[in-house]
Structure formats: C-alpha cells, structure tokens
Design goal:
Blueprint lengths: L9 H11 L6 H11 L4 H8 L3 H17 L7 H10 L8
Helix pairs in contact: 2-3, 2-4, 2-5, 3-4
Length: 94
C-alpha cells in the first residue's frame, strides 16, 4: 500500500549528503584558506600568519584533503575559492 512517501536509493542519498558536507577545518586551516583564496601566494600567507611557507602549505594540503574526504575535491586555488565561497567560509565582499 503506497503512503505518499518519498524513497531515495542509497546512492542518491549518499550523493545528496556529500554535496552538502562541509569539511571541519581548524582555525589555522581556515585562516590559511581565506588568505590563499584572497589571491596571496603561499609565502605571503605564511608571512601574514607568522609561520613558515612549509607550514602554510601543510595547512592548505590539509584543507584539500578534508574537502576530498567529504567528496568535494578542490585541488586548485580556484576550486578552493569556489568551495569555500559556497560553504560561506570566506568574508563577504561589499
């Protein structure tokens, strides 16, 4: 007997869930992402954060890995910017 209920396949439900997933970023990863997405080079991100360029790159690598983990790979600066913007992680421009 049908009861006007919506049923989703497991595949479709999984895709919908991962599309809405936002990575859980640490405050330092978020700082690095915001600076990098604003157009700064890794060396400038590092300088602004008071860390080495190697550490800044590590933070950004972790951000990319966390986006991959939630099924939303963002390998380039443009992809990171788009993903972070969609997730509301970047300051709004006025």
């Amino acid at each position: 007997m049908a009861r006007d209920e919506l049923y989703l396949s497991l595949d479709l439900a999984s895709m919908l869930a991962s599309a809405a997933a936002t990575p859980d970023l640490s405050p330092r990863e978020l700082d690095a992402l915001r600076l990098y997405a604003s157009g700064l080079k890794i060396s400038a991100v590092a300088h602004r954060m008071g860390i080495s360029p190697h550490t800044a790159k590590e933070y950004l690598d972790r951000v990319r890995a966390k986006y991959r983990e939630v099924g939303r790979p963002a390998g380039t600066r443009t992809e990171l910017y788009a993903a972070a913007s969609r997730d509301g992680l970047l300051p709004s421009e006025r």
